[in-house]
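This entry is listed as follows:

___
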Amino acid sequence: MVFLKGVRHVMTPASYSDRHIGPDSKETAEMLGSVGYPTLAALIDAAVPEDIRTTTLALGPALTEEEALRKLRSYAQQNVVLQSFYGQGYFDTITPPVIRRNVVEDPGWYTAYTPYQPEISQGRLEALLNFQTMVQELTGLPIANASLLDEATAVAEAVGLMARTNKKGNRVILDRRLHPQVVAVTTERARTLGLEVEIADVSSGVVGESLIGVVLAYPGTEGDIVDVRGAIEDIHSRGGLAAIATDLLALQLLESPGTLGADIAVGSSQRFGVPLFFGGPHAAFMAVTDKLKRQLAGRIVGVSKDAEGRPAYRLALQTREQHIRRERATSNICTAQALLAVCAAMYAIWHGPAGLRAIAERVHQYASDFAQAVGDKVVHENFFDTVTVECDAPAIVAAAAEAGYLVRSLGDSKVSVSFGEGATREDVEKLAQLFGATATESEARPLPLPRTTETLTHPIFSSVHSETQMLRYLRELKDKDLALDRTMIPLGSCTMKLNPTTGMEPITWPEFANVHPYAPDSQTAGWRALLDEMEEWLAEITGYAKVSVQPNAGSQGELAGLLAIRRYHQANGEHQRDIILIPQSAHGTNAASATLAKLRVVVVATAPDGSIDLGDLDAKLEKHADNIAGIMITYPSTHGVFEDTVREVCQKVHAVGGQVYIDGANLNALTGIARPGEFGGDVSHLNLHKTFSIPHGGGGPGVGPVAVAEHLVPFLPTDANAVDLTKETPINIGVPTSGARYGSAGVVPIAWAYVAMMGAEGLERASATAVLNANYLAKELSDSFPVLYTGKNDLVGHECIFDLRGLEHDTGVSATDVAKRLVDYGFHAPTLSFPVAGTLMVEPTESEDKAELDRFIAAMRSIRAEIEEIAQGSITFEESVLHHAPFTAESVSDDEWGYAFSRRQAAYPVTSLRQGVKYFPPVRRIDEAFGDRHFVCSCPPPEAFNIDD
């Protein structure tokens, strides 16, 4: 804590930490004066229990931005980037520059938060609705979600859906033709749920009883296309469900799964313009029949109407449903891959139905020409883009690499060659030469199940004919939203802070972006060195023995951590340990993840001060002692305080043989100050898209590494392609959590850059400043809105909860009303009614400067004054500005104004709003109940937006 000793701390002018941390030394001193402490060190001493404090991290000196870029470039240059013809679920694609520059690299898109406040998220909600509509039309199924994580976990989610829907069976059949990583991840997830898994050839149908369903490959991993209708009919006759793992580009030419009779379609949208990224992030998809819509995992964007009757978008059905249903949730997924889904949808709009079909036809033509040249060595007669050839595989793979190509070996006697969007006629000729053949142009090979239905018929997919139109459409959608580049996003537990542009820049470098996840180690030295260093840094920061970055979302990190606990107990012969203790205040994903890990949830009560009720904990431990697998706690607590009993809680659980899982969602307040692995944790998941500055991207990408103590290291996630599919995985090792060995590796350079440029002192100062900013807000607003929980010395952690329940009782003004009114002040709402109903949880983060904090304080005080008008009887709640907020530009400029308050009060309640560019939401308050009653989750026709004056 060396740097915290003085009030003023001036680092090198070029230091990144000075640019990342909002308050400068003068502002820091002023805020410290407000909360009553002379230095940051004194504040941390007062807020954080002394017995959990750690020593300075051993991370080496902080790098400047230029030095970090040079180091990243050196890593990139160690990778060997071949033209990828490998396939196995990951394909060569071309990201249109207009999308790369104006979505992936635009902070208006990548710094947005999940659209839980729909009035300020209409742009990204529309983009995600485009994604859903695209998937629905291509799969021929009526309901699709707004993306999942990767194809392997999407198939696992499909099996989970089958199990929830069909409770009479306990067996699932996986097509042997599925990609190996899909089979590995799905098999382990299914076995964890207690399902029996059979991997079989289902080309001629399915047999057996007690079947919940079958997952079919279309096309198969070797590229072959078989008629799956017989297998679908067979499973339906047995009362089971049929899922098809498919390819969106192939579905331009192949019959849709819905037409074939499938109940579920899953896959990845990666080849719709999303780079290989060494395995991710990529947006997966799932589409289902109407009868399955309420069991669909992930998020669904729906259509409702606003207060003026205009169509408006919102999250439907699954909106934060983990927090409501907890262990009964359909999925633990919280962060999906929204930004990548937006990219895929825009790719479809950019090319349109004719353009996509042309790409698919060209890919199939090149594959056909290659197969024609190779001749009778081709293994499968029917294929779309992947040709498998009998040959001396090691020799061919080596020769291909020498020629600049990456192809896939299938044992020693077969190689598959997968053609992607970037393939050329010259590539066809060179690849044929490797097999001793000469390629010529030929007729495209007929497909066995040609498409009979139109694709992408909605007008949005035919609306863009020029780059100008695309630029303006992307700008129109972006301008409808509030993102971090425009305003503070004060969401508690979600840590919306600055994302380093220096870290964002390298992720699209070809040496990082164009590397296939299954490229041999000889070609990925740079990637692996960067990832190894990141894992070592995270282990140092958390105090654990080892870290895996494989989990590709926080929810997957949670699951990986709980599976490590479960398998540890089973390996020790304690199979009865299946109870996980979870405090009432915990994130809802905790309970959902526990259920997926086949653990029973027992809730621990919360004490009046917001801490874990030690008496109730003791009672639960005594009652379930022999069955305790562990406890899940969040630290600082979800109530926003540093509980001084955390070591005692850990010791009590350890005393009965349980493990301690510490949710890393709030590591933003601990980094450099305390380490979970030192004060009692056995395992934690981290959120690189929170504490370590990877952007949220409107709801993803996410990376959720799992960190473990030494005794749990054997149970860290394993490589899906190293799993022996012929036998059950031994209980004394871990299981894969995603299809790629390093998960969503493509965005890890952002977090690497953040840690490298902050250094130990910068990270420590960031945590301390996050605590200062939260306490400053709590102090300044406590007279207006009571702070629900405080810790030692009446201090909060890095976030605080404002209690509006008393005000609602007295005036009718709810936390929701305040959240909507904040939009008129140009702010994203805080976290609404979590973890306590009727409250707002605020986390300012370390990136917000004092001026922005003061602007938020002024807005909240102004809203409090508006509430006071109701309390004093000056206006009724029903007539108040709060009841009708937010207001669009059109509504305040309408000729008619039938409200009891002025237009100025509605739109410009504080003077500062008249000094800049005022944000107006595109819609009024959305009718959530109407959307629930009228479920629509595809793009409405253009005429739906025409409202007569």
Remarks:
- The radius of gyration is 28 Å.
- The domain at 347-434 is CATH 3.90.1150.10 (Aspartate Aminotransferase, domain 1).
- The chain is about 35% helix and 10% strand.
- The longest helix spans residues 338-374.
